[in-house]
Design a protein that fits this description.
336 residues, alpha+beta, Sulfite Oxidase, Chain A, domain 2, eight-stranded mixed sheet, five-stranded mixed sheet, 10 helices, 13 strands, 23% helix, binds the ligand Nc1nc2c(c(=O)[nH]1)N[C@H]1C(S)=C(S)[C@@H](COP(=O)(O)O)O[C@H]1N2, binds molybdenum atom
Length: 336
């Protein structure tokens, strides 16, 4: 009888290698020797050393970022059994309509955006309103690395190692008043550097707006992001400061934030304004509630191609079921 031996599981190799390289590299960086060596490096070299894959483009990061990076808590949250999406895919297949609606437009057009200096207006129902420099917003918080699944409403997904700190910590810093019930976020408007905002045909009434209920915003998984893949955030991914809410569809994870307001009513969000029957305020990942024009039961995990479509089942709350308590008693088909 002929026994066929598969040639060293070639099919899996491309998926497994990046994660193992990434993780072993990350472990190395946690060693005290590596940390000491890194502290002596100039910022850009340190950024390169942090680059986990060969394809991570090094970048010069602002001082506030490098200082925090040296003390980051690596892999504070991991994604069990998942392969990390290659940096190249995470930075060249983007949604950021301010730079155009094509998936390659943000990478092509975001490079010229000025992200330094950067300020964020904090207003509304807070004890400490004001225009904060990004340095002052970041200073009190330690960086964590969190490897999260990102599920776009368009039924594709990635696994991305983010760097940042809990949104709850930022909110506590500015002291919400007892009247605060929702958090509203706004993206930069810059018609000169954001070509999508110059288009006369855009559906979007700028700025891009997103929002969370205050208890959702305070959930420990809600994350303020300033970096990814061990380096500063690329412009196309929402530099210098974005939100990442891993249990919700990607459009909730608003990029390049310039304003955070604590408010008493649910803000009207960009996608609700465009198509309220298709995109709701909650936008929790839910395989049982389909988009009116397509199923949400499965997703294409990137990288995916014609011959390896890599389709997987979508999980309730994108697999972050610890958030279920936030929605106890709510009809999630109605509050989609
Ligand atoms: N300001 C702004 N934020 C945005 C978007 C956008 O068009 N503008 N697109 C959203 C969508 S639909 C997704 S899926 C994620 C994609 O994030 P990524 O490009 O870092 O993967 O960003 C979200 N944040
Ligand atoms: Mo999305």
């Amino acid at each position: 009888m002929l026994i066929r031996v598969p040639p060293s599981s070639r099919a899996l190799e491309s998926e497994v290698t990046p994660e193992s390289v990434y993780l072993s590299r990350r472990k190395l960086m946690q060693g005290s020797l590596a940390l000491a060596a890194m502290a002596a490096m100039p910022g850009w070299a340190r950024a390169e050393a942090q680059g986990a894959y060969a394809d991570v483009e090094p970048a010069k990061a602002p001082g506030w970022f490098d200082e925090k990076l040296a003390h980051a808590h690596w892999q504070a949250i991991t994604a069990e059994g998942e392969s990390i999406t290659p940096f190249k895919d995470a930075t060249h297949y983007n949604n950021f309509y301010e730079f155009g609606t094509g998936k390659g437009d943000p990478a092509a057009n975001a490079g010229k955006l000025q992200v330094e200096p950067w300020t964020v207006m904090v207003d509304g129902e807070v004890g400490k309103p004001g225009r904060y420099s990004i340095e002052d917003l970041v200073k009190p918080h330690a960086f964590e690395e969190r490897i999260y699944r990102l599920r776009c409403v368009e039924a594709w997904s990635m696994v991305i190692p983010w760097l940042g700190f809990p949104l709850a910590d930022l909110l506590k810093q500015v002291e919400p008043t007892s009247a605060a019930r929702y958090v509203r976020f706004e993206t930069l408007v810059d018609r000169e550097h954001m070509p999508g905002q110059r288009s006369g045909f855009s559906l979007i009434d700028w700025p891009y707006v997103e929002g969370l209920r205050l208890d959702e915003a305070m959930h420990p998984l809600a994350f303020m992001v300033v970096g990814m893949y061990g380096r500063v955030l690329p412009n196309q991914n929402g530099a210098p400061l974005r939100l990442v809410v891993p249990w919700k569809y990607g459009f909730k994870s608003i990029k390049s934030i310039v304003r955070i307001s604590l408010v008493d009513e649910a803000p009207k969000t960009t996608w609700e304004r465009i198509a309220p029957n298709e995109y709701g305020f909650y936008a929790n990942v839910n395989p049982q509630v389909d988009h009116p024009r397509w199923s949400q039961a499965t997703e294409r995990r990137l990288p995916s191609g014609l011959f390896s479509p890599n389709v997987i089942d979508t999980r309730m709350f994108n697999g972050y079921e610890e958030v279920a308590d936030l929605y106890a008693g709510m009809d999630l088909a109605r509050y989609y």
